[in-house]
Fold these 4 entries.
Entry 1:
Amino acid sequence: MHAARADRSLENTLEWAIDRMKFKGFIVTSQVSLSVDSQLSIMGYARKEGDAHRIVISEWALDSEMLGGLVLHELAHIYFTERGAHSHDGDLLEKTLQELKNREGLRAKETEYLIDAFNHLQNILVDDIVFAVMEDKELNMAKRFFSEWVSDRPSGDPVLDAALLTRNAFAVASLKRRNLFAKDEDMYYRNKGFLSSLGQRAEQDFEWVEGFLERSKPDWGREEFRGAIEAYFDRILSLMRSSSKLDDLR
């Protein structure tokens, strides 16, 4: 696609997403711009630039049928940031992680996966807006998208497997939260296979993490939110540090 036409197409997508959110009562007041990063490995992200915000999209995501949903999702992050949501308070996350590091001596990989787990919490909250503005065709695309997130077999590394379990829980919770999850679909069986391979404690741990994400609230007070993420991080860290297979043998 010619660069100027691609730029115009992106601008149209951004305008469409802003208007769609506005129509449903979610008004973004900041100036928002959009750019493409050919080196970006993830689909996209939003960042604050002074009083304005920029949504950065990976080049490979431009051809995705989920592009409109991605822009809506990043706009929802901006909406939460504008309103000073606790889920988008970097200092609160940093302090919680630092206390956990001081108490438990986190390794780099554990910290990385806990930040991923926090992102799942952030995403499930902002997606309340995205799902509220989606139409039926887009909801079906979202169902397929989350189905593809689900891992069906463990890696054998307890730290990575805890991260995969959390990601599976996020995908399932994302659909359950909006009454879109069905037990007779592929993602249900893939997750069931994953949990069976992990061992008997895995299902209990999954139910806790999935339930936490499904029932998380955007209007938690600051201390309530902090207490919630401390419990969430503690649960995931204990999962990282115990192999379910070893538990089965004891």
Note: Residues 150 and 168 are 5 Å apart (CA to CA).
Entry 2:
Amino acid sequence: MKIKRQPDSKLHIFAKILLTAIYLWSGFFWSGVSVIYYIIEPDMTHIAVEFLISSALLLISLVLCWFRLYIWQFPFCVIGLAVYLQPAAELIRLANQREVYFKPSFELRYLPVIAFGVIALILFAYRFWQRITLKAAKQSEFDNSPTQSILEKRRDE
């Protein structure tokens, strides 16, 4: 039983554009700036590597969203988000300890990725719910059909 992907609504397209904007701001631009800056620091190269890996995972998640594979994108998003927030939290903690203020702040640079995760979770949950209700409706239709048609359906499969 193959389930066809439903076409996206305007709300889905808006959510994907919002995901792209958040990724470009936090996952691409500020993560890229951090990678370039911290790759030359001998004590901080782990931050650059974590940002690089997490940005790649978030990009995979974003691409899968654009291909309407919302269930497949979610694991990449969760893992990418977990890896991304570790160096971001470390940088925010260091900036607060040293009382250094940047414009924009590290919170505005890195934490919008949390909204990326929330939107990806909503898209995942909606698609998952949609699949479950579709399967339940097909099973109900099969269970309530006359005996003769059940035998014909079994034979055709």
Note: Residues 71 and 128 are 7 Å apart (CA to CA).
Entry 3:
Amino acid sequence: MSAHDEGVHSGSGYFHMKGVALSILLMGLSLVGIIIAYVIFGHIGPSFSAERINVQQAELRKEYGLPEQEVIRNQTILLTPPSLRDLNQDTIKG
């Protein structure tokens, strides 16, 4: 072995583990941030998105002078993608 090899292996054997430790620390801090955000804001759910879309559509219809459209409030319909809402149940079952 050369003198250089002894210097690398004799000192701190865990020098290369600092990057791993910092990565794990960063992931932990990210998870803590996500948990804090969830506690502060709570579970928003699909009703928030549906209400936001209704507000946006109403604003755009008013801005461009389009006729009013019926607002859908039924949760089962809102959870179904728009492309599948008009399909018959017999068609889905095959």
Note: Helices lie at 3-10, 17-41, 46-64, 75-78, 89-93.
Entry 4:
Amino acid sequence: MKNVWMYAILFLCLILSVSLLQLPGLHGLGIAAVTWCLVMIGLLRGSRTALIAGIVIGLVQDISYGSFLGESALGYALAGYAAGYIRSLVLRDSLVLAVFVTGVCTELFDWVTYLTSRFFGADVILVHAAIQESSRSALSTMALCVVFYIPFYRAFAKKPRIRYDDDSVEA
């Protein structure tokens, strides 16, 4: 049931990204709420779940708002998979890890979408502007991670199962 709620929050982040976060005062921040939610899914549920969630949400975004099909799906899939993979290399969950992975995956998503749109000739933004936009987006998304990490972690982290026949549990 928690996976259903995570996907619902992912779609809510997409709705917020294309509506509320496009207002003139908030658009300049470049908050990537969908990328943050995918990173949290990757950290808490693993790379396979985040990869599938990234493909699904990316295709929904590309069909609804994209310039061509597959651009956001590829970027979100890579960002989600990278978050899950980085989490598999580390022993403990922490806020510092989540902030670091959020920054890395936001940069990864921004650069994958920039390079694919540049390759297909859909984007005419210069590299200097792309660097400014991606760094602004990464920093603001990292700030979002600092604010919402603990509630998201408490709601969706897998609880370890306690077995009563285990020798490590003392009576």
Note: The chain has a mean pLDDT of 88.
